[in-house]
UniProtKB/TrEMBL annotation:
It comes from Croceitalea vernalis. Belongs to the NAD(P)-dependent epimerase/dehydratase family. InterPro entries: Epimerase_deHydtase, NAD(P)-bd_dom_sf, NAD(P)_epim/dehydratase. It holds the Pfam family Epimerase. Transmembrane segments: none annotated. This is NAD-dependent epimerase/dehydratase family protein. Residues 5-243 form the NAD-dependent epimerase/dehydratase domain.
Length: 313
């Protein structure tokens, strides 16, 4: 029998592509998309959709019972830049949505959970390059504090209640299908749109701000393979470090220039610079490689080619 999957926050940057990828894999009717708003035409046309608030336990439980859901992917969250503006709303959404899903699994109403963490769990005192899986953390943003607390709770529910929860610390994600939702790495998507529209871009991060990044196809592949991995092989139940590439805005700009020679970049850093400065510049993901054979396929050059090709169409 086909397993039944619920995606909460399915209409965002990751959820949109994840929903479509899971529908291709498990069948359209087996993957229920949900969000507090409707998504893209492609997403809405591809299978079942429910309006669902991630902070409403009863509403989630009703959907889980109705569709006999076995796995939940919780993608609803308030991202780093927006969370600095609305700290209490961010805490409420990011934590209570996670508790709702963890408690459903604790009560054996679902079997498996995917919950994404972020490189934002690290802070200014963390070693900046090749940041290890286990290290000093001390996040200094509301978002990072919520993700680190989430990681602790995931591991706690795994150890205490045998909840099968799996997680990765996504770096900044680059995609062309859906715009990003208020994070500090959003510039790495905007820059491609502006390069094609205006041939110039003013970056809200300074030159030299090197951050870990990943193309969306790699992020989706990582998510699906972690969820398919044999549970005995998983040594991390907080969240896995996940790496692919690291670069600053000037490197992405010179990559774009190779395709569009007239492209120009300027810098006008805003409040997001302080958030970026508190994060690692590169990630050591040896444990993910060892435990479930993680291997990225996209570097910056391949990402740029893919982004420009698809956005031009
Ligand atoms: N995109 C990235 O670069 C990145 C990096 C690290 C971690 N993450 C994490 O991945 C997850 C998904 O991120 P994303 O980039 O797709 O975010 P996004 O902002 O693009 O999408 C989040 C979705 O959640 C929905 N949502 C908001 N409040 C909700 C609620 N109360 N109930 C149900 N849905 C609600 C929004 O409508 C939106 O469609 C988040 O947990 C985020 O922290 C993302």
């Amino acid at each position: 029998m086909q397993k039944s999957i619920l995606i909460i926050g399915a209409c965002g940057q990751i959820g949109t592509e994840l929903t479509i990828a899971l529908r291709e894999k498990y069948g359209n009717e087996a993957v229920i998309a949900s969000d507090i708003r409707e998504g893209s035409d492609a997403l809405m046309a591809s299978g079942p959709f429910e309006l669902l608030d991630a902070t409403d336990y009863e509403a989630i439980e009703n959907v889980v019972m109705y569709y006999e859901i076995e796995e939940v992917y919780l993608m609803a969250a308030m991202l780093s830049a927006t969370a600095e503006k609305f700290p209490m709303r961010a805490w409420n959404l990011n934590m209570n949505s996670l508790f709702n899903v963890l408690n459903l699994a604790k009560d054996k109403k679902i079997d498996k959970i995917f919950w994404p963490s972020s490189i934002a769990v690290f802070g200014p005192n963390t070693p900046k390059t090749e940041t290890p899986q286990h290290t000093l953390m001390e996040p200094s943003t509301v978002y990072g504090i919520s993700k680190q607390s989430g990681e602790r709770w995931c591991e706690y529910y795994f150890k205490k209640f045998d909840v099968d929860v799996r997680s990765v610390r996504y770096p900044g994600l680059i995609s062309w299908k859906t715009l990003p939702g208020g994070g500090t790495t959003d510039y790495a998507v905007e820059i491609y749109h502006k390069a094609l529209e205006d041939k110039k871009y003013t970056c809200f991060l300074a030159e030299g701000t090197k951050l870990p990044m990943m193309f969306m196809d790699d992020a989706i592949r990582a998510t699906v393979s972690l969820m398919e991995a044999n549970p005995e092989e998983l040594s991390i139940r907080s969240s896995y470090n996940l790496g692919a590439m690291s670069f600053g805005p000037e490197e992405i700009a010179s990559n774009i220039k190779a395709h569009l020679p007239e492209f120009e970049i300027n810098y006008d850093p805003d409040f997001r610079q302080a958030i970026a400065d508190s994060w690692p510049s590169s990630i050591d993901d040896a444990q993910a490689k060892l435990d479930w054979n993680w291997k990225p396929e996209f570097d910056l050059e391949k990402t740029t080619t893919e982004m420009l090709k698809n956005l031009m169409n």
